[in-house]
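Just scan my protein:

——
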Amino acid sequence: MKSSNRFPSRRNILGLGLGTGLAGWGSCALAQQESPVAYPSKPIKFVIPFAAGGGTDILGRQVARAIEPILGKPVIIDNRPGAGGGIGSALVAKAEPDGYTMVLGTTATHAMNEFLYGKLPYDPQKDFTPVTLLIKITNVLTVPINSPIKTFQDLVRIAKEQPGKLSYGIVAIGSSSHLASEKMKIDAGINVVGVPYNSQVTGMTDLISGRLDFMFDSVGNSRPHLQAGKLRAIGVSALERSSFFPEVPTIAEQGLPGFSAPGWVGLFAPANTHPVIVNKVAAAIAQAYKSSKNIEDFKAAGFELDVMEPREYAAFVAAERIKWGQVIKSAGIKL
């Protein structure tokens, strides 16, 4: 877990200009309803575009509980699963930009799906205002415990010596773990064979048994098998080491400088939401992330917290969209 001390020093968003943007904003519908300075005056709704009980749902509920006492209003969870997150995302894209309906977007819904599916019921660029990052999801590169592959350099060396021999698991085509593998193949210039699975459990079973040579998967999915001594971690996909496995070097440290392929979840409001409202919500989340109790609660659920002020987050999402669009096009993946 990153130290909570980083927020005030690196991303001090609590004092962001809450008065900016008021002048000349009267054409927006919100200006006719209430002053942004009075926000919030009623419950806020977080749309979760996935089913209840999943990781995004659990995260949304924890964030909601953490910011309710700061904002002084309830935060209601509304699960709208379907179409790979498209149904819930489209709902928020069409909502009033008044700050009372927001969506938890993911790497898939806001940086990948438009390239995988071709056409979405929303425009991830034009229909949303980025609020803040919530978490990054580190994908761990693992091999069977008895594998001769001990390091990432070993994997690259063997793959180049024996092109097409090594195999890796794809637990969901188009997922962040799948695309981390595709990016690694492109960046490292190696020829390895992807094997698709219908479930994460089946893929992990084959990896443990040695029928697969390696696989990317999230920290949450990989951690029990690593702790049980069934798998060996040889790298992580983020630029920073995982707080759960600080001893495991990043892939960027091991010969692919700049390699970054974590998943992430963040908060988005409808387009044209007033910056005063966006900053208030982002600041509330940054404040909640400083609480030692909240930090422990999130860590217990397997979340690695991160937060960005809105402009930084908008730039991050734009860069992610470009990165994954290039990977998907280069790999020729379509769903």
Q: What stands out?
A: The longest strand covers residues 128-137. The chain is about 40% helix and 20% strand.
